[in-house]
Specification:
Jelly Rolls, binds copper (II) ion, mainly beta, 5-stranded antiparallel β-sheet, single chain, 4 helices
Length: 853
């Protein structure tokens, strides 16, 4: 097996600093290899037309492959495109899984590949069904053969049809790949004349258009106009504007006055429009629906009372915000109140919501389901219930088979009992514990995000603390690969340290100090910006930002945000590739109205590729969609716009769109699996070889007609067999691969769902006994209710270094800008009012220099 031609590019993209010198030296060679590929480029597939017989009944270097419960035949056929032999795969019955003829996974047969390179895979095929997919496996030099990814759905084709698709960049540690076409539905697939050629786009070479610091670490700017509202919710809308929801903004005064606000920020001109807000949406849940409107669920019915008889209360109301009219419209009520609920959109457009506090400030154990079809919340009895309390803002991430991964990231306290993370199967109504989350009771206001690309099903959880015990927040990260049969979190790299302001100005972090209130933002080059945070409960901002590379699993420290952004902050990607950050609400009850914007290093790296046309903005699953670009790109993706609050945005995702390249005309191959890219509006980015993204175009994935599964247990759709002639009617609308027309094979589509995470060994819990609610401490927010107004947070536990004395606590409160602090009753649990005059840290309690005034 000959090695592929040596294309003289250094490893590209993100590992820029070390690569700069190498690239400069290699430049002449790079230019040479940029010439159009010669026709003689070798086909890397051995026995590409099945003409050489093997030792058994399969042709040389081809094997039968696939999984699941189905009846199948895989055998050579004389119905060939070229030569005398082709390969026929037939499914006669199917409950689940796929079948394929696959390049034999051996050193003799599987083509060698180079890390970072891309390869054009092509073949000729006939198919009775569109439920096919080009599937690639990769040989990991340490782990052996693994499933890698599905890159292209082939439409039905009565006559031999050519198709071609480019692989993503070959991941590190990969030395060979094997590939074939998987058949997911009852029907017949015939393939022939496979080809694989190196199609690596040479790196344009190092460019730095800013200062050296900007090119390496990006740059923050603080905007001249302040955010007019105390918003802790940020939702990027499909018109490019940003909805900032404050409600009462955690201000008891505004709440008492009935002053509830939202603002719409327009990045185009930097303006804010404050809009009428019908209810106190402070600490609601939110998600963009399939049509791009925003579903806002629950919010704040009441602040805790001064006597500590009840805590925060969540109402049952729910609203839809329409970006077109910038107005809220009421929906039907939820079944329960949910202050701090989760909200996850599913592959069929439904929304599942869990957790939060009820109208009586106890914990809600009621799962809520928004029906896309009915456009309303369903009654409790129509929704599978486990009667579990999922905590507050539980991070519930949709998996590729429709199950939900609870990452263990949450807000307040310890999170749920158990290992800290679990997989919830809605159909089976079971919860299975997932092991490995480090320090699981100190992941309050950590950030979890599905890493790019969504196809890889990896989740990272970063940092966190605990407002009940108030230790220094940690630097831990944990990464889980949900493609494994029995996935478990593995420790990831430690968060880089920055500076922390403990009250006397920023000083370097020491020891194990990390941060909670972390924001995680998917960037269009396939990395993740983590930014913002604090060391303790609503105190001690940490100034540190870094970019995580999911390929190398490393952090690269970048410029820190100059603003303090801890509790009630959020950060999110704008369609122009910059990141906006807003909000900070420390324990003294104040609010930081400054807004900062980050330009990542890729914006200082030369001309951006431009998407010059998008053939259609309405996209179907499993289709190919044509765009044109003004310069070469190496990848394109959909990024779901942010709907973020309290470090939590479980719907944020980056969905790779494998390319079919014909010069400046690019066909984008859209996944057939709605669970990988739930319906809705997405930002479409194109990215060049140096990791520089285009400005996004907005495209829409509609709700699949066939609906989709809510859980792995319902994935088996049996589709009737079709004859070859039976597909002829639909051929006119189908892609022929090279002509680049858009295809809509959706009607016949069985999503390419994999059998990942199918052998869980964790403890399984079924539904609990039906109950009303979970008891919750009124101090759940980590604030001692005996002192001050409800929006002032005297911590129930002070940070570890604060002396356990009246003087020590008063000094800390004074250092953290707490003003005059009255007792709400006679109780003085923190011993701040030694003389009993009703004033904490006052005259007669502590010497003058420790007093609050
Ligand atoms: Cu909050």
């Amino acid at each position: 097996m000959p090695a592929p031609p040596s294309v003289s590019t250094a490893p590209r993209g993100r590992r820029r600093r070390s690569a700069l010198l190498t690239l400069a030296l290699l430049l002449p060679a790079v230019l040479l290899s940029a010439a159009p590929r010669a026709a003689a480029d070798p086909n890397l597939v051995t026995n590409p037309g099945f003409e050489t017989a093997g030792s058994g009944d399969m042709p040389y270097c081809w094997s039968r492959s696939g999984w699941g419960d189905n009846e199948f035949v895989i055998q050579p056929t004389t119905d060939a495109h070229g030569g005398s032999t082709a390969m026929e795969v037939t499914l006669t019955e199917r409950l689940e899984g796929d079948r394929k003829a696959l390049i034999t996974e051996s050193a003799e047969c599987a083509p060698f590949v180079e890390e970072g390179h891309q390869y054009d895979l092509s073949l000729w095929y006939k198919a009775t069904t569109g439920s096919n997919s080009v599937t690639i496996f990769r040989h990991d030099t340490t782990l052996g053969w693994q499933y890698w990814t599905d890159v292209q759905t082939l439409g039905p084709a009565a006559a031999y049809t050519y198709t071609e698709v480019r692989t993503p960049e070959i991941p590190p540690g990969t030395d060979r790949i094997a590939w074939g076409v998987s058949l997911y539905a009852v029907g017949t697939l015939i393939t022939d004349d496979y080809s694989m050629v190196d199609a690596t786009v040479p790196d344009p070479g190092p460019v730095c258009t800013g200062t050296q610091a900007e090119c390496e670490d990006g740059a923050w700017e603080v905007l001249p106009t302040e955010n007019p509202v105390r918003s802790m919710h940020s939702v990027v809308l499909h018109n490019g504007k940003v909805l900032l929801i404050a409600g009462s903004g955690n201000s008891e005064e505004l709440f008492a006055a009935g002053t509830f606000t939202s603002a719409v920020y327009d990045p185009a001109d930097g303006s804010y429009t404050v809009i009428p807000t019908p209810d106190d949406m402070f600490c609601a849940g939110h998600v963009q629906l399939a049509d791009g409107r925003v579903l806002v669920m629950s919010g704040n019915l009441a602040y805790p009372d001064a006597e500590g008889t009840h805590g925060y209360e969540g109402y049952k109301d729910s609203y839809i915000f329409d970006p077109a009219t910038e107005t809220y419209t009421k929906t039907n009520d939820m079944n329960d109140g949910h202050w701090y609920p989760s909200a996850t959109i599913l592959g069929n457009g439904d929304v599942l919501s869990f957790g939060g506090l009820r109208e009586d400030s106890t914990g809600s154990v009621t799962a809520e389901l928004w029906s896309h079809e009915q456009q309303q919340w369903l009654p409790t009895w129509q929704v599978n219930q486990t009667w579990s309390f999922w905590g507050l803002y539980p991070s519930m991430i949709l998996m590729q088979d429709g199950r939900l991964f609870y990452s263990g990231s949450h807000v307040f306290g310890n999170g749920t009992p158990g290992t800290g993370a679990s997989i919830y199967d809605y159909g089976a109504n079971t919860i299975t514990e997932v092991p490995g989350l480090q320090n699981k009771d100190e992941r309050d206001q950590s950030a979890s995000v599905l890493l790019p690309p969504a196809q890889d099903q990896k989740v990272i959880t970063m940092g966190g603390g605990n407002i009940d015990t108030n230790p220094d927040a940690n630097r831990l990260t944990d990464i889980i690969d949900l493609t494994q049969p029995d996935p478990a979190y593995e420790p990831g790299p430690l968060l880089p340290q920055g500076t922390v302001d403990l009250g006397d100005g920023p000083v370097p972090q020491t020891g194990d100090q990390g941060k909670m209130y972390v924001s995680a933002v998917l960037l269009p080059d396939g990395t993740v910006l983590e930014t913002g945070g604090g060391l303790h409960n609503r105190a001690d901002p940490v100034y540190e930002s870094s970019i995580f590379d999911p390929v190398t699993e490393t952090f690269d420290p970048v410029a820190p945000n100059p603003e303090a952004y801890g509790y009630h902050s959020s950060a999110f990607l704008l369609p122009d590739g910059r990141v906006m950050a807003t909000g900070d609400n420390p324990g003294d009850g104040s609010w930081n109205h400054n807004v900062s914007i980050y330009s990542p290093p890729y914006l200082f790296r030369g001309d951006r590729p431009q998407i010059t046309s998008v053939a259609a903005t309405e996209w179907d699953y499993g289709s190919t969609q044509q765009i044109t670009v003004d310069s070469p790109i190496v990848k394109a993706e959909l990024i779901r716009p942010a709907a973020v609050t309290h470090s939590s945005d479980p719907n944020q995702r980056f969905v790779d769109l494998p390319l079919t390249v014909n010069g400046s005309t690019i066909d984008l191959n859209v996944t057939s699996n709605p669970n990988l890219a739930p319906p809705g509006w997405y930002m479409l980015f194109a990215v060049n070889a140096d990791g520089v993204p285009s400005i996004a175009e907005w495209v829409h994935l509609g709700v699949p007609e066939s609906g989709t599964m809510l859980s792995a247990t319902t994935t088996g759709h049996d589709h009737g067999a079709m004859t070859l002639s039976g597909t002829e009617d639909s051929l006119s609308t189908l892609s022929t691969g090279t002509t680049g027309t858009t295809a809509s094979p959706e009607e016949d589509l069985v999503p390419a769902v994999q059998d990942f995470a199918g052998s869980l060994t964790g403890e399984v819990r079924g539904p609990e006994k039906r109950r009303e609610s979970e008891p919750v401490d009124v101090r759940i927010a980590g604030c001692e209710r005996a002192y001050g107004a409800a929006d002032v947070c005297v911590p129930t536990a002070f940070p570890p270094k604060v002396a356990d004395t009246t003087r020590g606590r008063c000094a800390w409160l004074r250092q953290h800008d707490f003003g005059r602090l009255e007792l709400n009753g006679t109780e003085d649990p923190l011993r701040l009012d030694r003389n009993g005059d009703g004033l904490a840290c006052g005259k007669g309690d502590v010497p003058k220099r420790y007093r609050l005034t």
